[in-house]
Amino acid sequence: MSSPLKPLPVWADVAVIPLVNVAAAFVISGLVVLAIGENPIQAVRILIVGALGDLEGLGFTLYYATSFIFTGLAVAVCFHAGLFNIGVDGQAYIGGLGAALVGLYLPLPGYSQVIVAIIAAALFGAAFAAIPGYLQAKRDSHIVITTIMFNYIASALMGYLLVNGLRNPKQMNPETLPFPPGGIVPQLHALLKPLGIVWPVTPLNLSFFLALAAAVFVWALIWRTRLGYEIRAVGANPTAAVYGGVSPARIIIISTLISGALAGGLAVNVILGEEHRLILEFTAGFGFVGIAVALMGRAHPIGIVLAAILFGVLYQGGAELAFDMPKISRDMIVVIQGLVVLFAGALEHMFRRPVAALLARRIAQPPI
Amino acid sequence: MQSFDALVIICASAIRLAVPLILACLAGLWSERSGVVDIGLEGKMLTGAFAAAAVATFTGSAWLGLLGGVAATVVVSLIHGYASIDQRANQIVSGTAINMVCDGLTALIGNAIWSQGGRTPQLPNSALFHPIALPFLTEIGAIPVLGSLYRNLISGHDILTYFAFLMAPVTYWTLYSTRFGLRLRAVGENPAAVDTAGISVRGLRYSAVLICGVLVGLSGVYLSVSQAAYFQPHMSAGKGFIALAALVFAKWKPWPALATCLLFGFLDAVSIRMQGAHLPGLGEVPVQAIEALPYILTVVLLAGFIGKAIPPKASGVPYVKER
């Protein structure tokens, strides 16, 4: 280690470094595509056309993005409190249980049922996150380990319930009966049809707007409320927060509750918005995508929405890509996701020194 | 007698299921005792399994497969080491990244080469590790009870199994009876003190990460070149995380680590055996409950209800040398 790092200008810190990091992840991804014998530029073209080329692709892209906004926000809220919640996947899974229980067993008039189902998804997600949160706050159990364990506990619990209690008796598959029409979040194509607007049949549903509202809510919470200030204080320095009259234990529990409730949003989008019944492993690892989204979006709602849309493009375009270039299976997206976490998260300071050196040279150049 | 035989068979299966856990758990132990938290065991296990199966497929040799699997895993391990030690990264983030990249990359490359959805071709018998019959098998095997135990539990495992069981005492001895071990434990508790004594924190942590890579690589090799005869995407199926749970449960100590892995292996064997079985008075056994037991036990332990699991003091904390 040579000289200490000089602080960079704000614009470089906010824009240049993150962009360089994400670019590095994509360059390596391109090299991976090259190594398996395909043309990366061609691959990117197929990917973008598949994701954004027509309304159908766009619908799927935004549907995926909806899930990622929720999980990205869930991870980010905990980041601000200095916590790493790896359990978003499990919390969303249990959130799906809450939504399904309302959909199946609580008949309510009209769309009030789906509103209660959404609340139930958030409450179940929050409750499941609360246990690791409580254990971290009061018993000093590391939240990373407990949330990993809770993902597997959720998986086992839901597997048991879907096979033994909730399963549709007429089906061999472990899935429940479909929810009644009042128990689902309407899809966009169904809503636009009476207005005379033709939107192709895609799973995009009103949860997308709920996700955007959640992003605004998280922004307001973190940067415009007293609670948000306390969350950031605990995240930055728990000891200092105590001297400021903040109880870290209380903040840890509240942040995990909010995080778990946001994780429930994934269940709202997938279970109430698309599947309309509870199915096995519906979270499909999207809770982990939230980690990449939160890191890439630097835990800021605007960044998260943009990163979620990018990952929506990758997931939708990746499906098309796997079809056109069978060598590039959908696992490529997981690789990209991992590389984003590696470069935007773990190695975020790797390019700081070269960028700083470059900027210093630019600034030091005499005016012509 | 019949139930005794059934128990012996379950125990034999438990030993086989525990091998990857033991290797991965000891790998994590080395890394975390030096202060480098490793939640990337799952991804590294997949890397070892894939590289071993791929090399064994091309060369037809289990031993070359082993070398390939270990080499690939060491590379991944060093990436985590570079991020954690030199870049002072958040080690949880780095481990998460490793899990994702390895999970995707192994399936992607496997699919690109063999076009079987990521699965590698079935390895011929000659490219696998085989059970070793220990001496006097027929003589001792003829004795009742003891013979059955010797035949099924002690003898008849492959070299990796014996190696895994040997690694627990070796790890114990190295960590607690050698100068290197003392320093390694010290660097996980108080790196500044080690640095003051003129010993390289960086060097010690890199060696720990290296040993971790070798051991977890072998756990992957075991999965694809011994337990199965091929690699399949996501074939580690959470074993890396169970090993992590076992490490916490064993409070980062070698002998308890071995015992915990055997216990978790036993639970796994029981849950496989109990699939669809009915117990008198209980009805059908919920297999999921047994499967979830390792995780539940670990959480209960972490919560401090059965003893207290205290990690190495400096684990997860990057060391910044004073200027």
List low-pLDDT spans of chain A.
none
Label the CATH architecture of chain B.
Answer: Orthogonal Bundle
What is the rounded distance between the termini of chain B? 70 Å
The pLDDT mean of chain B sits at 90
Task: Find the structural class of chain A using helix and strand composition.
Answer: mainly alpha
The fold-level CATH name of chain A is ABC transporter involved in vitamin B12 uptake, BtuC
Shape of chain A: globular
Order of helices and strands of chain A: HHHHHHHHHHHHHHH
Tags for this entry?
heterodimer; A: 368 residues; mainly alpha; ABC transporter involved in vitamin B12 uptake, BtuC; globular; B: 323 residues; two-stranded antiparallel sheet
Explain this structure.
The complex is a heterodimer of chains A (368) and B (323). Chain A is mostly helical and 368 residues long. Chain A is 72% helix and 0% strand. The mean pLDDT of chain A is 91. In chain A, helix 2 packs across helix 3 and helix 3 runs parallel beside helix 8. The longest helix of chain A is centred in the middle third of the chain and has 28 residues. By secondary structure, chain B is mainly α. Chain B has one domain: ABC transporter involved in vitamin B12 uptake, BtuC, CATH 1.10.3470. In chain B, 69% of the residues lie in helices and 1% in strands. Chain B is built from 13 helices and two strands. Chain B has a two-stranded antiparallel ribbon with strand order 1-2. In chain B, helix 1 runs antiparallel to helix 10, helix 11 packs across helix 13 and helix 12 runs antiparallel to helix 13. The longest helix of chain B is centred in the first third of the chain and has 32 residues. Chain B starts with a helix and ends in a 21-residue tail after the last helix. The model of chain B has no long low-confidence stretch (mean pLDDT 90). Classes of the chains: A mainly alpha (368), B mainly alpha (323). At the A-B interface, helix 6, helix 12 and helix 14 of A face helix 4, helix 11 and helix 13 of B.
